């Protein structure tokens, strides 16, 4: 089938920054290095990051993705995904004697450490996040009880902590910055003594990608977000562009693009969630070029240089 041509299309503007963050880079590298060092199969609990292409690529290299530890054979090497896991999963994996590498993003671990520390001081928690997301399950699972999930402002009115003197708020790292701020304000209104993290839990990558979409959206007629349906931060990028009044679509790969979206439009904005690889962005660029876009321009934006160290046992140690 020939590619349809959209005569109005002129330019693609690439959001900066977009795509992989330091936590995703590290998580993928952990699985790849484990495969190189120990050979296939390497078991990974949950999708290492929420991206179909990345998961399929690692499957081909010998990773096996599981949800239940029952599906991991004795003596296997097991990697925890970037989203983090509950204490119960950590304890069970240890008890079963697996060789474990933890690919939990250090910025998620930071939240886990904060929860554990404050819980020892008698705090209860309000967690702002999306029910069922593995990061939320992992963070809430740091304690047996005492973390109350709120998904929106209405939930804040309903939440019933056992006491309000020692109450702290924690946030999923990949939320809409604006929605989370609104919910946090409702928490503050209802619980004026609530303790908030010194540095916000929403991570730098989520913040930077959303800031870039805020700059990009008014400059273009349509925003395309490369990301998988399960990716929280990718979904937030699409919603944000839409909220700013620019038509927006999220695609897992170039084949999901529809020429009809671009009819009558000239300028296309393109971004990618923190788990979406640049190879997919390039394929999307090529497809939109085939539709008729003639030029590609990079937006000015923050350059990200953060890099997280790999776990011991997977680092390449300097030669003696
Ligand atoms: S999106 Fe943020 S929290 Fe999630 S892996 Fe990337 S840096 Fe870490």
TrEMBL record:
Q: Which residues bind (2E)-4-hydroxy-3-methylbut-2-enyl diphosphate?
A: 50, 83, 133, 173, 231-233, 275
Q: In which pathway does it act?
A: Isoprenoid biosynthesis; dimethylallyl diphosphate biosynthesis; dimethylallyl diphosphate from (2E)-4-hydroxy-3-methylbutenyl diphosphate: step 1/1; Isoprenoid biosynthesis; isopentenyl diphosphate biosynthesis via DXP pathway; isopentenyl diphosphate from 1-deoxy-D-xylulose 5-phosphate: step 6/6
Keyword set, alphabetical order: 4Fe-4S, Iron, Iron-sulfur, Isoprene biosynthesis, Metal-binding, Oxidoreductase
The EC code for this enzyme is 1.17.7.4
Q: Where does dimethylallyl diphosphate bind?
A: 50, 83, 133, 231-233, 275
Cofactor binding summary note: Binds 1 [4Fe-4S] cluster per subunit.
The record lists the catalysed reaction(s) as:
isopentenyl diphosphate + 2 oxidized [2Fe-2S]-[ferredoxin] + H2O = (2E)-4-hydroxy-3-methylbut-2-enyl diphosphate + 2 reduced [2Fe-2S]-[ferredoxin] + 2 H(+); dimethylallyl diphosphate + 2 oxidized [2Fe-2S]-[ferredoxin] + H2O = (2E)-4-hydroxy-3-methylbut-2-enyl diphosphate + 2 reduced [2Fe-2S]-[ferredoxin] + 2 H(+)
By its UniProt entry, which InterPro entries does this protein fall under? LytB/IspH
Please name the catalytic residues of this protein.
135
Molecular-function annotations in GO: 4-hydroxy-3-methylbut-2-enyl diphosphate reductase activity
Q: Which cofactor does it need?
A: [4Fe-4S] cluster
Residues that bind isopentenyl diphosphate, according to the entry? 50, 83, 133, 231-233, 275
Please tell me where [4Fe-4S] cluster binds in this chain: 21, 105, 203
The domain of life is Bacteria
Q: What class of enzyme is it?
A: oxidoreductase
What family does this belong to?
Belongs to the IspH family.
Chain's role: Catalyzes the conversion of 1-hydroxy-2-methyl-2-(E)-butenyl 4-diphosphate (HMBPP) into a mixture of isopentenyl diphosphate (IPP) and dimethylallyl diphosphate (DMAPP). Acts in the terminal step of the DOXP/MEP pathway for isoprenoid precursor biosynthesis.
* Protein name as catalogued: 4-hydroxy-3-methylbut-2-enyl diphosphate reductase
Which source organism?
A: Curvibacter microcysteis
Gene (name only): ispH
């Amino acid at each position: 089938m020939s590619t349809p041509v959209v005569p109005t299309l002129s330019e693609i503007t690439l959001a900066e920054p977009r795509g992989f963050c330091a936590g995703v880079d590290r998580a993928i590298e952990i699985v790849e290095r484990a495969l190189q060092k120990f050979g296939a199969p390497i078991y990974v609990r949950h999708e290492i990051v929420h991206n179909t292409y990345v998961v399929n690529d690692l499957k081909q290299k010998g990773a096996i993705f599981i949800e239940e530890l029952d599906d991991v054979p004795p003596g296997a090497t097991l990697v925890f995904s970037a989203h983090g896991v509950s204490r119960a999963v950590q304890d069970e994996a240890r008890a079963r004697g697996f060789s474990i590498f933890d690919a939990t993003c250090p910025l998620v671990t930071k939240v886990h450490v904060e929860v554990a520390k404050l819980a020892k001081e008698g705090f209860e928690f309000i967690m702002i996040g999306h029910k069922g997301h593995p990061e939320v399950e992992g963070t809430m699972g740091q304690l047996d009880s005492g973390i109350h999930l709120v998904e929106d402002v209405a939930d804040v009115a309903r939440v019933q902590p056992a006491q309000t003197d020692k109450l702290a708020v924690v946030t999923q790292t990949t939320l809409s910055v604006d929605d989370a701020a609104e919910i946090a304000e409702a928490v503050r209104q209802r619980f004026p003594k609530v303790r908030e993290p010194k540095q916000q839990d929403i991570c730098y990558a989520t913040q930077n990608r959303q800031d870039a979409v805020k700059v990009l959206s008014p400059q273009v007629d349509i925003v395309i977000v490369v990301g998988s349906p399960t990716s929280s931060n990718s979904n937030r990028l699409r919603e944000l562009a839409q909220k700013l009044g620019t038509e927006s679509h999220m695609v897992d790969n170039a084949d999901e693009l529809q020429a009809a979206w671009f009819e009558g439009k000239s300028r296309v904005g393109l971004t990618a969630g923190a788990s979406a690889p640049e190879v997919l962005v390039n394929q999307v660029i090529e497809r939109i070029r085939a539709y008729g876009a003639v030029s590609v321009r990079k937006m000015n934006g923050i350059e990200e240089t953060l890099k997280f160290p790999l776990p011991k046992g997977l680092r390449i140690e300097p030669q003696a």
